[in-house]
Amino acid sequence: MSLGERIKEQRKSSGLSQEKVAEFVGVSRQAVTKWETGQSAPSTENLFKLAEIFGTTVDILLASDEEEKDTPAEQIYYLYKMEQEKKREERRKKIKKNIFFTLVVAVGYVIVYLVGRIFGTTGQQTSVIGWLFGDDPAQLSYLYGWLLHQNIFWIAMAVSVIPALFGKKYFSFTTLAGFALGLLIGELGGQNPAGAAYGYGHYGWAIWGGIFTFSIVMGIIFEKITKSTIDWKSKKLWVWSAVFAIGILSILIIIRMSMPTSFG
């Protein structure tokens, strides 16, 4: 008799349904079904829980038939090894997933960088290298050139990319979105012609800074309210999205209203 068959026999002897056993152990009913059919085995911790629920011992659950060679101790060790291997495999999958999302976020920044090169240069560059890597603010759009010249572009990229390595992908995607939206809105909405003659002709830096900082806060909140997968029907997600959109709009309005219209 296999371990699964013994679990099934003990469950029925105790007059318990699979749902009740699952509730007592703290797993799903499907997990109990897999144990009983031999598709998987309970962890050593759950094995002891089952023995307690059935009012028996682990030795009885693992009792060997005469023709079987493994002793209960050997079977416990075997289950322990299986459990450890399963944990190692889960860690490997998690690391691969984290690396994948890290690369996705990094590629997102590369795309923003290239789009900035395409639409944010003056056309005065004479070489491909100069066009691709030059950071002279005079030859780039105001905000894009400022971010590159001050190395803020790369600092912001690190703020977004590094957390993804540790599984904080929702934070990383939120700050990437904040960076891109801040750059776009800052370039388009930061101009202040009235202050151009006095060196205050563009407030794109303030708009971008406000939106990116806001996205950091919203990214932290997103990580708190979201589990491993996004539930698109979640009320919390829709409220978060509305707050994010309204927050960005509010930052733009506040900074635009704060711009001086005359200098004297």
Q: Which properties best describe this structure?
A:
264 residues; mainly alpha; 12 helices; elongated; 434 Repressor (Amino-terminal Domain)
How would you characterize this protein structure?
With 264 residues, the chain is an all-alpha fold. It has two domains: 67 residues, 434 Repressor (Amino-terminal Domain), CATH 1.10.260.40; 166 residues, no CATH class. Helices cover 70% and strands 0% of the residues. The protein contains twelve helices and no strands. Helix 1 crosses helix 3. The mean pLDDT is 85.
Poorly predicted runs: none
Residues in helix, %: over 70%
**DSSP strand tally:** 0
The Rg value, from CA coordinates, equals 29 Å
Tally the structural domains. Answer: 2
- Main sheet overview: none
Distance between the ends: 94 Å
Shape: elongated
Strand content: under 5%
- The oligomeric state of the chains shown is single chain
User: What is the N-to-C order of secondary-structure elements (H for helix, E for strand)?
Assistant: HHHHHHHHHHHH
Number of helices: 12
Decide which structural class fits the backbone: mainly alpha
